[in-house]
Design brief:
The chain is α/β, with parallel strands linked by helices. It is built from 4 helices and 13 strands. A 7-stranded mixed beta sheet has the order 1-2-3-4-5-6-7. Strands 8-9-10-11-12-13 form a 6-stranded mixed beta sheet, with no helix packed on it. This is Glyoxylase, beta-lactamase superfamily II. It comes from Geosporobacter subterraneus DSM 17957.
Length: 216
């Protein structure tokens, strides 16, 4: 697993198999935050090792319901998991289908663990300046995480997997996705991480908007 430091308090863990999968750790002032839990306990083991001596409470964030972002949830017994309200519902309703179709990618044994805290519009952690925002696009339940202190946005899978495919598969509609992209441009950040791509600058949002408009 490749580990990259992002500014002062972010670490991007990239697991490479058939594709690159990013998990993100933010070491906050009050809490530590792990954004997405990947393919199972073995995927998140390097992150747990990294913070094993850190006594701060750990908060887990699921950016959306897809299997490659949630299968490691059950590796965090004593941590709160947060997602959008729709994400919890969609994990529960799609669990068996996702497991049957993609179980061969599992990294260790796991069980279904649903988020315990859900929200609809926004959720804010003022002591750490961490902002969770409902940003539908790739999926209807997608959220993004803005580190206001570091000006780093985690866009989940609202950014495509590679530089050649910046526009992700969009399971909502393109107009909804465009509205999320325009909202990104209104946010104060200069660095963007995502579920599968490399570390990017904010200007990539304009490039994605241009590609989406061209395709409509």
């Amino acid at each position: 697993m490749k580990v990259q430091k992002v500014k002062n308090r972010g670490l991007l863990f990239t697991y490479s198999n058939d594709w690159d999968l990013n998990l993100y750790l933010i070491r906050g002032n009050r809490y530590n935050y792990i954004i997405d839990t990947g393919l199972g306990p073995l995927n998140v083991a390097p992150i747990k090792e990294n913070i094993k001596d850190d006594k701060k409470q750990l908060i887990i964030i699921n950016t959306h319901f897809h299997w490659d972002h949630i299968w490691g949830n059950s590796a965090f017994d004593n941590s709160v998991i947060i997602s959008h309200k729709l994400c919890r519902e969609m994990i529960a309703s799609n669990w068996e289908q996702m497991l049957q179709k993609n179980g061969r990618y599992a990294q260790g044994e796991f069980q279904m663990r649903l988020p315990e805290v859900v929200f609809e519009g926004e959720l804010y952690f003022p002591e750490d300046k961490i902002r969770l925002i409902y940003t539908p696009g790739h999926t209807i339940d997608s959220i993004s995480v803005l580190d206001e202190e570091e000006k780093v946005l985690n866009a989940g899978d609202n950014i495509g997997d590679t530089m050649e495919e910046l526009v992700p598969s969009v399971y909502t509609d393109k107009q909804t996705y465009l509205e999320t992209l325009y909202r990104y441009n209104d946010l104060d950040f200069d660095t963007c991480v995502s579920g599968h791509n490399v570390i990017l600058e904010k200007k990539v949002i304009d490039k994605i908007i241009e590609e989406v408009l061209t395709s409509m």
